[in-house]
């Protein structure tokens, strides 16, 4: 189109120049220049008038009815008309897609709030209107902080720590799971999900497990007592004693299972952060090693390799349970004469307690599931050694209450390393250690490595 316009312009200007030269030859230079100026001015005014009509046509609504023209301007009108019709068609398709997209979002069972990066609301679906008590007509264009009355939610959004969801309790008794998602460089999305019913089912399941486990304790205590009395009978045959021993072992295993179920139920009910009592990590590790040696029965080498001086703020009973579960778990999955080692050190991540073994290892596909209840990498081996299948689930919940993380490194046939990473906010510095630790703790914190090993 530009080339056509230029060709037309060059031709018109050339025509004016030829006429001006002819006039110059006949009437002189002055007359030729006058004709040239008048010709160029006429061309300019002509194209200016046509350009004005072109602009008026562009601003109008009737694209099909363009002004009558000829030559290059007819070509311009036709090509612009074709381009605009194509643009309108694409715009219609885009609007149709956007309408379908918004209709789909509006029909989702989850609430969706689309905001700009400055938290100005751009769009809300009907579920978000219900969940967050918004008004679809009045709240579009307003800042989220001006229409949301939950300070807890706004604090979570402003923190920009959006990796984890927020559980929000509503005044009407419902519970929302709220997730904040960064949608590119311009938008932020808030997604809400009503989990009231699933939470009710989870609470029912936890209460049921806790109640059943509690009720099982009494009959188990009675059974174990009578088994112990029966074993003292000197008239029993060798076969009867073997049967009684098997019954005692299974009763003890059932008792351990009940204890673990009750512990897990308690941890699930209490998701608040753990207390901040000073804990001597050397004591915790020593207790865990003693428990591991009892489970091992002398068949494994279990030792503490390294202990940092820092203490931890938390719940001693829970942390002892977590570390003991890791140690006994390592023993159960390590063949006879294998090694289990513990270490406690402080890194840039925080306090890191590692439990390493040279056992059977864990396949990569099993690692994400090992903290599930009753999930066993090797079911037969865990049952043979008395495992309940709940140890790592308990560890996960204990660490959650301590804002800690569980990291697992493993290789089939070469062993595993379980790391408890405790954040720096739960570590005691030297001054706090002296002020908050029990009497005699300073002496225990400098026990030699040889004492730890033996």
Automatic annotation (TrEMBL):
Stored CDD domains: HisKA
Key word Chloroplast present: no
Gene Ontology biological process: cellular response to phosphate starvation; phosphate ion transport
Primary location: membrane
Known EC number: 2.7.13.3
Topological category with respect to the lipid bilayer: Multi-pass membrane protein
Residues passing through the membrane, by range: 5-23, 29-48
GO cellular component, one term: plasma membrane
Domain Histidine kinase intervals: 211-426
Keyword Membrane tagged: yes
Gene3D superfamilies cross-referenced by the UniProt entry: 1.10.287.130, Histidine kinase-like ATPase, C-terminal domain (3.30.565.10), PAS domain (3.30.450.20)
Cell compartment(s), UniProt: Cell inner membrane
Keyword terms, alphabetized: ATP-binding, Cell membrane, Kinase, Membrane, Nucleotide-binding, Phosphate transport, Phosphoprotein, Transferase, Transmembrane, Transmembrane helix, Transport, Two-component regulatory system
Group of enzyme by EC: transferase
Top-level taxon of origin: Bacteria
InterPro entries for the chain: BphY/WalK/GraS-like (IPR050351), HATPase_C_sf (IPR036890), HATPase_dom (IPR003594), His_kinase_dom (IPR005467), HisK_dim/P_dom (IPR003661), HisK_dim/P_sf (IPR036097), PAS (IPR000014), PAS-like_dom_sf (IPR035965)
Reaction equation(s) it catalyzes: ATP + protein L-histidine = ADP + protein N-phospho-L-histidine
Gene Ontology molecular function terms on file: ATP binding; phosphoprotein phosphatase activity; phosphorelay sensor kinase activity
NCBIfam families named among the record's database cross-references: phoR_proteo (TIGR02966)
Functional description taken from the UniProt entry: Member of the two-component regulatory system PhoR/PhoB involved in the phosphate regulon genes expression. PhoR may function as a membrane-associated protein kinase that phosphorylates PhoB in response to environmental signals.
Matches recorded under PANTHER family: PHOSPHATE REGULON SENSOR PROTEIN PHOR (PTHR45453:SF1)
Protein name: Phosphate regulon sensor protein PhoR
Organism in which the protein naturally occurs: Parasutterella muris
Gene symbol of the encoding locus: phoR
